[in-house]
Amino acid sequence: MTPIAHSRLSPGVFTLNGTLLAAPSAPPVEALRAAYQALAMDYPKFHKMDLAAKLTVLVAEPVLRVARDRGADLAEGTAVLALSRSGSGSSDVEHWRVRQDTGLASPAVFVYTLPNIGVGELTIRHGIHGPSLCLMTDGPHSAESVMAARLLRRDPRVRWLVCLWSDIFAARFEAQAVLFGPDDDPTNQADPTTLFPSTP
Amino acid sequence: METAPRAPVTDPILLGAPGCVTPLGATLEDSFAAMHAGRCGLRPEPFPGSDAPVHVGRCDEAALTGGGRRAQRLLGAAVRQTMSGLSRSLRTLPRTAWVLATTKGDIRALEEGRPEDAELPLFAMRTGVALGLPGTPIVVSNACVSGTLAVHLAAGLIRSGDVDHVLVTGLDEATDFVLSGFHCLHAIANGPCRPFDDDRDGISLGEAAASVVLTRDPGLFRHGPLATYLGGGMGNDANHISGPSRTGEGLVRAVHGALADAGLAVDAITHVNAHGTGSVYNDGMEHIAFTRLGLGHAPVNSYKGYLGHTLGAAGLVEALVAAHALRQGVMLRSLGATRSVTLPGIDVLHEHRHTQGRTLLKTSSGFGGCNAAIVLRA
Q1: Nearest-CA distance from B324 to chain A in Å?
Q2: The domain boundary residue, chosen from B199, B220, B241
């Protein structure tokens, strides 16, 4: 099944359904700022997030706008499946650096040292109360993630499903988001081991 | 590879062959016995950067088995108990998945200067090798709901027909990484944590590993099943990444989902093993949620006064202990809670109590605003 919407955010590429939204170049800090500006977002909380949470929120924004345009009630009927390789790795390193350097720790850093915090920020931004599941995977493609997506869809309250892949550590970053609607089975008939299209 | 007839899809999903390593014991039975005797696994220890000691639940090093990293030996000790409780080899059992619930895995690797080795997918792959298990686990890292959510995910994989059996494991260590983090949030209790007590003042951290198999095949368990899985649910607060909801909205939704999934009315719940961290706001949030849900009839406890908050392992460890306790005919007191008059309308267990039924609601809530609930019949 082809998803309703597919976004991709990586060095030089920020697309929605293959259409270029921005061409954010590395490093990640500047790239994510450029992506934020390209979306014309006005969300002050964004600036307090760590890079992993920013990446999650940014890549999901275009597909959730599509969902809203199609009348989705994001609060009541949306589930989120997040796959990540690095998880909170960047904030983990920063938290430990502060601990080593000062003997103390920073609350503002520590609260981002969990892989699901980006999804938490996403649910806050869009008021999503539905189920969410965060899995750590080596890449975006795995049969287990498709099984997990089907599990989320079996909740009778869920009509819209957002699936995310993200990886951000040091200079590397990459993320994708796909949106499935009420009538879509997230199983990709051509390749049952992935939720994500092979092309932008 | 062994083969066996598949159980009909209408058969119930069972949990069995539990394995546990906790601050109070090297097995589920030992941990329960210590808890039943009223022992607390939290011990004071000096904490760098603080004048006051902190209470932490540490596992006995002698309980850790096998080779590899400490986290792998901790998990391995629990998994080996599960293996010994199965009638067939987990290593060759067909159509079997493995789920690992953890928040930080081998975070010691980062503390030792090797952050790449702390990445959870790599840790999971290496753990499979270290434990001699086929394949790589599905890693659930959903903050403190990970263990509860892993059980729900495992049951879903069996229901969908994707697999017939699932090994569910949970693990987290109490290292300086997490201790310093919660300390900087001023979240650590001054003494052992006191969940659901009027004077609770914070959490205590602990470490643990747990393991169990979900299947429809009762013949897989050498000593019979521990519990039957009835249903599960999830919900998000959409409120704050580190502060509990003021309305309990996500937890209410998770429990509603679990009850609907189980086909039960709230009256059918006979015992609630809550998240109960001992923080003022978490336990207050749960009080609001349980009141909204009409759970005032069901005795409530938390095990964190015994074991500490074992993070990603907590939901699984606590579900196994609670199910085991119900099979022994007892609901354990919520250690540390002596007075709960500020939490009216819920029935906090201040003493052990004989069971009136065996339908358990296990709930968990975590950073990011996530909540999970499962219903088991012990």
Answers
A1: 27
A2: B220
